Amino acid sequence: IIHPQVASPHLQLFNSPEEEFKWLLQEEVHTVLRQLQDILKEASHRFTLPVSGSEGPIKQENFILGSSSAEQVKGVLTLQGDALCQADINLKMPRNNQLLHFAFREDKQWKLQQIQDARNHVNQAVYLLTNRDTNYQFKTGSEVLKLMDAVMLQLTRARNRLTTPATLTLPEIAASGLTKMFTPALPADIFVNFYINLNKLCLTVYQLHVLQPSSTKVTTPTSTPSLLPEWGSQRYEVSHVHKVECVVPWLNDALVFFTVSLQLCQQLKDKISVFSGYWNYRPY
Fold first, then answer.
1. Each residue of 114-153: pLDDT tens digit?
2. Quick check: helix, strand or coil at residue 28?
3. How far apart (Å, rounded) are the C-alpha atoms in residues 81 and 65?
4. Any idea where the domains of the chain sit in the sequence?
5. For this UniProt entry, what's an example GO CC term (predicted)?
6. Terminal CA-to-CA distance of the chain, rounded, Å?
7. Percentage of residues in the chain having pLDDT higher than 70
């Protein structure tokens, strides 16, 4: 990983701040842009993971889920790029210790929109950095700042897609079709959700039970809506929640690349801003 420090290749001696700023625009800005391109292309490659060459098929990776505190949930998840192509799960029911096993049907896979969105933002940042002639020269500091702001916006959005868990409400899970992807079919009182949190691939299992018509009190984990009104006359609430996860190393790499790139952008913005008195009033 390239260190985020922006260093001039030679000790430069300038006769005036104006001359130094002109050199900054013509030389150092392009050095930083090349560094950013190299880093973000590496980040983009992490999301595609070709076996060999840029056109090769995306390899499958198996991840063992860390056991929950009571070891109620165990399993293996198979990731292929931005798609969860297999999930093999064992669930121990707490009320009777019954062991349930379920896996994705062979014709099903689950797209992880967080990974897809993060990759798209990275590719957009690369496009912003490369969408100009190789001999292009920046004329003003504001032009550089505008480019850095646009790149940082895409990088921030990419990072936020991975750092903000895309947890679904129970009605959203019911409507998503995720519960219909398994064989054997999931029991009606079991819901699952897969999502990314930082560098981890996570699984949450919700166990529900039917509320009796006279029941008015609902106890449910914070921010997890318990009722599924669209299920007609039957009303459910959450009785147990199990969360398990596994580390995806290349997601960690991507997050590091995002941080390094954002630091590079900010350092360049800071250097340009030092000369604001010149690029506001001079033709450079």
1. 999 999 999 999 999 998 877 888 888 889 999 999 999 9
2. helix
3. 18
4. 17-49+115-162+251-279
5. nuclear envelope
6. 33
7. 76
